[in-house]
């Protein structure tokens, strides 16, 4: 299974059809174990039971950044290597990343409620995640704004990479802005001394959520490939090209849509 | 379902003068067309063919002169009895072919015919549920023609109607125009290419 | 629906309702499909509001005091900037010619287009308000007050902004020029919208007076907007 093999959408579909059930099963098992361990973990002496939000919050926050990383690599794939599946991967990842980011924000603000007394505090961490969320939404809006996916792909790839470079700068600026106004943050997450009874379930949850992402991402990529096939079928139908032979090959869909556009 | 039962219609213009952007395009123009008649407006570029059609459609106001339709519907104004087929095809790429057509049928109102049948007549029945954005230029023009068939209006104002149509499309369109004339309609078409039907020539702006 | 006229009541008006409903349905559909801009307005609103704390600082007490003003400014910009292409798209593809020629009065068609735009782009702003209220530390009552004033006031923004959108077609220029033309017209709405929401949060005025004026502004613009837009479109025909 090399990258070249995966470049063919048809082979990709066949392969993922076999892999996906196993991935989904592994995700469910790990999530169950992680949640069970998290439920058994002791309460924090300061925060009480609310600390358990951490087991959901931290994996989501971790994935919110991880997904942008995946999209950046996929964008490089689009721009540099012109890998045919790269923009499919980038497009499919964006809504999933946005969902993880949203969950990170939601759990963060639910966690903040007993800590701060408000659902929202312009805390440096949360604020950075909020900006990340906005950037995800902007990227999705870009994908939606352009009808032709191959034309949107390049613009989205450039934006993703610019975002990847800008994210640390934004993070730094927000930290600086926040300390300028607020000398001490109300809450310090994590720290160095995280007890083992927290650490192990947290790691299990992180792995489970990463698996969850991989599963969802592969499924979303399948959907996107099929969606594009429907699209090129429709274009062929509009120009009345006989499509019986074209479809079976599948990897030719780019050519087909170009022909249909030219017709 | 003869469609247009107006026995004798007469569309005529007298002493028309058109000024656009401070420049006089034409002046003292007279024309007339009766039921079952087609007028082919010819002339060089910039002689005001499109302007004349837009004057009739009420989209431009004549600086002088008047346009009347005798024997038309008494409650409707002239533009409300005209179909205007301009350079731009008034289609939304995001909507499907059927949605585009039914929108215009609903919006323009009046007597209407089956949309699917009109689409079949212009050769678009295979694409009814596809987005109009997937259509080629010629197919978009065919879809615009389907609008003329779905909503019955006695006067057709056509601006370069055969643009973008292939040979088969032009034949099909000539047939549609003949049907319209046979039903007592009036056609005024601005054109460079031959219309493909019997028509009276109206030359404006001198000899090319 | 035959061409043959009704007896006493001219059938000019009867088809109008079907026509207007069709126009509204079409515009909403286009706004929600791929390439449509309905949700971008909300995203813009969100972004503008999120930017504010970076300018004024994360002080929650200050933010909750400025909250209604920030939300109103965000909604104002979001609803006006999305109006840009209200008539432009129809003008470019020739639809506007056919709409002008139809038996539906142009004023009603303009009103229908503006209503569709408000439903597709204005209502989502109001739905998003509670979330943004949370970010600005507004309590439930204050958020509800802002949402209510936006519900009453954004129609006024859409219907006055429509005049600018029509002028943009006439002048063949959109974008910033339109914003410059329309923003001054929206000042009264901003004044009374913010005043009504502030009245709930800090007093000393009653909520009723500014809110009634806000509603009145919306009703007036409902009348003036379509007429002005239709007049400007008719003159711009070319």
CATH architecture of chain B: 3-Layer(aba) Sandwich
Query: What global shape of chain B is seen?
Result: globular
Q: How many domains would you count in the coordinates of chain C?
A: 1
Largest interface pair: B-C, 37 and 36 residues
Helix content of chain B: 25-40%
Number of helices of chain C: 10
Tell me what the structure shows.
- The complex is a heterotrimer of chains A (263), B (208) and C (238).
- Chain A is an all-alpha fold and 263 residues long.
- Chain A contains 9 helices and no strands.
- Residues 183-192 and 242-263 of chain A have low confidence and may be disordered.
- Chain B has one domain (10-203): Rossmann fold, CATH 3.40.50.300.
- In chain B, helix 3 crosses helix 4.
- Helix content of chain C is 78%, strand content 0%.
- Chain C has 10 helices and no strands.
- Classes of the chains: A mainly alpha (263), B alpha/beta (208), C mainly alpha (238).
- Chains in contact: A-B, A-C, B-C.
- The interface between B and C is large, with 37 and 36 residues.
Outline:
The complex is a heterotrimer of chains A (263), B (208) and C (238). Chain A has 263 residues and is mostly helical. Helix content of chain A is 80%, strand content 0%.
Chain-wise SSE layout:
The complex is a heterotrimer of chains A (263), B (208) and C (238).
Chain A: H1 3-7, H2 9-40, H3 54-81, H4 86-116, H5 124-145, H6 149-181, H7 196-238, H8 244-249, H9 253-262
Helix pairs in contact in A: 2-7, 3-4, 3-6, 3-7, 4-5, 4-6, 4-7, 5-6, 7-9
Chain B: E1 10-20, E2 23-34, E3 37-42, H1 49-56, E4 64-70, E5 82-85, H2 97-108, H3 115-121, H4 137-150, E6 155-159, H5 167-182, E7 186-190, E8 200-203
Parallel strand pairs in B: 3-7, 3-8, 5-6, 6-7
Antiparallel strand pairs in B: 1-2, 1-4
Chain C: H1 14-32, H2 38-56, H3 60-81, H4 88-92, H5 95-101, H6 106-135, H7 140-171, H8 176-182, H9 187-201, H10 208-236
Helix pairs in contact in C: 1-6, 2-3, 2-6, 3-6, 3-7, 3-9, 6-7, 6-10, 7-8, 7-9, 7-10, 9-10
């Amino acid at each position: 299974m090399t990258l070249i093999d995966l470049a063919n959408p048809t082979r990709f579909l066949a392969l993922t059809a076999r892999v996906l059930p196993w991935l989904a099963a592994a995700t469910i098992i790990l999530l169950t174990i992680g949640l069970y361990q998290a439920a058994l973990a002791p309460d924090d002496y300061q925060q009480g039971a609310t600390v358990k939000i951490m087991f959901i919050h931290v994996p989501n926050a971790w994935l919110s950044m991880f997904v942008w990383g995946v999209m950046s690599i996929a964008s490089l794939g689009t721009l540099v290597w012109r890998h045919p599946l790269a923009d499919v991967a980038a497009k499919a990842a964006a809504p999933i990343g946005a969902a993880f980011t949203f969950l990170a924000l939601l759990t963060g603000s639910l966690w903040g409620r007993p800590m701060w007394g408000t659902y929202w505090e312009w805390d440096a961490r949360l604020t950075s995640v909020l900006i990340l969320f906005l950037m995800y939404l902007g990227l999705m809006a870009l994908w939606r704004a352009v009808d032709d996916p191959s034309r949107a792909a390049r613009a989205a790839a450039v934006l993703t990479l610019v975002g990847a470079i800008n994210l640390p700068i934004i993070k730094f600026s927000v930290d600086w802005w926040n300390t300028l106004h607020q000398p001490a943050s109300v809450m310090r997450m994590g720290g160095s001394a995280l007890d083992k009874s927290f650490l192990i379930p947290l790691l299990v949850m992180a792995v489970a959520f990463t698996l969850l992402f991989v599963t969802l991402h592969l499924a979303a990529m399948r959907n996107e490939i099929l969606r594009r096939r429907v699209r090129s079928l429709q274009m062929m139908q509009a120009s009345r090209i006989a499509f019986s032979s074209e479809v079976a090959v599948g990897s030719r869909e780019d050519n087909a849509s170009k022909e249909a556009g030219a017709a | 379902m003869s469609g247009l039962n107006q026995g004798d219609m007469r569309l005529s213009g007298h002493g028309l003068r058109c000024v656009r952007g401070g420049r006089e395009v034409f002046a003292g123009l007279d024309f007339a067309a009766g039921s079952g008649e087609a007028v082919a407006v010819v002339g060089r570029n910039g002689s005001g063919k499109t302007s004349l059609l837009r004057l009739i459609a009420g989209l431009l106001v004549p600086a002088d002169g008047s346009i009347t339709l005798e024997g038309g519907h008494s409650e409707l104004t002239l533009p409300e009895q005209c179909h205007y087929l301009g350079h731009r095809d008034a289609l939304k790429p995001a909507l499907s072919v059927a949605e585009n057509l039914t929108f215009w049928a609903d919006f323009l109102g009046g007597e209407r015919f089956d949309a699917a049948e009109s689409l079949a007549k212009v050769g678009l029945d295979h694409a009814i549920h596809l987005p109009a954005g997937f259509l080629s230029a010629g197919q978009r023009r065919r879809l615009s023609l389907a609008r003329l068939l779905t909503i019955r209006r006695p006067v057709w104002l056509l601006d370069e109607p055969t643009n973008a149509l292939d040979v088969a499309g032009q034949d099909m369109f000539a047939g549609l125009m003949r049907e319209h004339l046979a039903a007592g309609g009036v056609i005024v078409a601005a054109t460079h290419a031959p219309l493909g039907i019997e028509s009276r020539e109206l030359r404006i702006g001198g000899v090319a | 629906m035959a061409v043959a006229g009704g007896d006493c009541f001219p059938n000019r008006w009867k088809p109008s309702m079907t026509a207007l409903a069709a126009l509204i349905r079409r515009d909403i559909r286009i706004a929600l499909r791929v390439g449509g801009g309905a949700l971008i307005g909300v995203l813009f609103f969100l972004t503008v509001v999120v930017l504010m704390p970076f300018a004024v600082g994360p002080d929650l007490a200050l933010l909750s005091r400025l909250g209604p003003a920030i939300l109103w400014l965000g909604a104002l910009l979001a609803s006006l900037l999305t109006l840009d292409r209200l008539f432009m798209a129809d003008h470019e593809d020739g639809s506007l010619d056919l709409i002008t020629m139809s038996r539906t009065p142009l004023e009603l068609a303009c009103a229908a287009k503006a209503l569709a735009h408000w439903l597709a782009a204005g209502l989502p702003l109001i739905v998003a308000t509670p979330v943004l209220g949370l970010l600005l530390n507004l309590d439930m009552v204050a958020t509800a007050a802002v949402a209510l004033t936006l519900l009453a006031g954004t129609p006024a923004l859409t219907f006055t902004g429509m005049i600018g959108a029509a002028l943009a077609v006439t002048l063949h220029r959109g974008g910033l020029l339109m914003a410059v033309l329309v923003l001054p017209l929206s000042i009264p709405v901003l004044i009374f919208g913010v005043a009504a929401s502030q009245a709930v949060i800090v007093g000393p005025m009653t909520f009723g007076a500014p809110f009634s004026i806000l509603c009145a502004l919306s009703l007036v613009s409902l009348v003036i907007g379509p007429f002005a837009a239709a007049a400007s479109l008719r003159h711009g025909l070319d």
